[in-house]
């Protein structure tokens, strides 16, 4: 069984650090080995005298799976359709076609094909898992969980389904329940890097950063070039106040993926806290080079410029962030703090109010973050947040 990775990314405001959402997977019915070379165009020999429809269906299915692995989605679909033409009840053909349709963003069509697979093979855990995956993409979390549960009913050792169910529970904010599912996945597959990675994310959400790091390290043990695990490990290290270790971890990410925006951003954050503002700016500029629409890079660059006393340049950086995303509260917050430094209190108040307009619970969130950081012993970063909160309170 080949597992196809599906990754979703989203900003979660935990110390304004990017974190990567849990990975959720397709479960493929594809055979593990293929006779086709990766560079060869698979096809049936036109001189072949194969007449048995079952054999023809299998041939077209194998061609379809090879084309899918080559990223030739439309051609893969054509071959799965031909397979079904010769064997109308080919459940794995419908399942595989559904996977391709999901990659093309045609989620309802994908579900229709998974349903066809289940019509002809009602006990088909992979098809239930894939249906659950698609429902998760569509935001139908409870329905997704039901499908993962059915997959697990028919295959209680199905590590991928436990992982995927955990991913949905994480999205619902049910972090302890998510961790239970990841532990079940790891019970049946102890060398499952994505389950360790996902467990780390849920632990981070509970502010259990040391435990999160332990899980990221296990993910890396089984997948040494696992960029996302290094990235999230750096976030946990920042939360714990281990800034140089965070920088070292970001450098490993950059070694494996030189255009990784999140690594440059997390590195810049650590450098700013260590008062290495010029180096922070260099890393922000690299992040902007690789992703001009990544808002956090402009904010972190603005913070570095403000701390260097370059207030007008800082404001320009915040304005670039605002131009790209007008409803991002932290852009107005950072701009307002810089305006206070320039004694432009009226403009500062306007920007503080805009920050609260777009995030009404901003002050409450900061108080919670400060409390969590103090509990972790990260007084340096807690002090940074306290300073921002006080400036805001004094200028409203």
From TrEMBL:
Signal peptide from the UniProt entry: 1-31
TPR repeat copies, ranges: 57-90, 91-124, 125-158, 159-192, 193-226, 295-328, 329-362
InterPro entries: TPR-like_helical_dom_sf, TPR_2, TPR_rpt, Ycf3/AcsC/BcsC/TPR_MFPF
One Pfam family linked to the record: TPR_11
SUPFAM superfamilies in UniProt: TPR-like
Keyword tags: Repeat, Signal, TPR repeat
Repeat listed as a keyword: yes
SMART domains named in the record: TPR (SM00028)
Protein name stated in the entry: Tetratricopeptide repeat family protein
Source organism (scientific name): Rickettsia argasii T170-B
């Amino acid at each position: 069984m080949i597992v196809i990775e599906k990754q979703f990314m989203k900003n979660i405001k935990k110390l304004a650090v990017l974190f990567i959402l849990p990975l959720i997977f397709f479960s493929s019915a594809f055979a593990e080995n293929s006779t086709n070379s990766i560079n060869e165009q698979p096809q049936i020999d036109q001189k072949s005298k194969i007449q048995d429809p079952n054999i023809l269906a299998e041939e077209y299915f194998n061609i379809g799976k090879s084309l899918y692995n080559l990223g030739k989605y439309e051609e893969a679909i054509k071959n799965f359709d031909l397979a079904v033409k010769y064997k109308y009840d080919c459940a794995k053909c419908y399942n595989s076609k559904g996977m391709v349709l999901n990659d093309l963003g045609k989620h309802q069509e994908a579900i229709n094909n998974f349903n066809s697979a289940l019509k002809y093979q009602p006990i088909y855990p992979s098809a239930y898992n894939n249906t659950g995956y698609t429902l998760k993409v569509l935001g139908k979390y409870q329905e997704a969980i039901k499908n993962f549960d059915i997959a697990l009913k028919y295959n209680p050792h199905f590590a991928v389904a436990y992982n995927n169910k955990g991913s949905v529970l994480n999205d619902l904010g049910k972090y302890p329940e998510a961790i239970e599912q990841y532990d079940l996945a790891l019970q049946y597959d102890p060398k499952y890097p994505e389950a360790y990675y996902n467990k780390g994310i849920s632990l981070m959400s509970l502010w259990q950063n040391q435990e999160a790091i332990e899980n990221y390290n296990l993910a890396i043990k089984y997948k040494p070039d696992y960029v996302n695990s290094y990235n999230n490990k750096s976030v946990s290290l920042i939360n714990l106040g281990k800034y140089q270790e965070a920088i070292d971890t970001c450098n490993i990410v950059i070694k494996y993926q030189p255009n990784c925006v999140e690594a440059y951003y997390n590195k810049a954050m650590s450098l700013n806290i260590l008062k290495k503002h010029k180096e922070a700016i260099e890393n922000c500029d690299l992040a902007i080079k690789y992703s001009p629409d990544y808002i956090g890079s402009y904010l972190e660059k603005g913070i570095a410029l403000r701390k260097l006393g370059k207030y007008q340049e800082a404001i320009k950086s915040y304005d670039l962030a605002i131009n790209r995303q007008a409803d991002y509260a932290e852009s107005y917050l950072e701009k307002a703090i810089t305006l206070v430094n320039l004694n432009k209190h009226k403009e500062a108040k306007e920007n503080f109010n805009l920050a609260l307009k777009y995030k009404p619970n901003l002050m409450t969130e900061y108080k919670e973050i400060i409390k969590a950081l103090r509990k972790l012993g990260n007084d340096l970063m807690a002090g940074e947040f306290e300073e921002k909160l006080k400036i805001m309170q004094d200028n409203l």
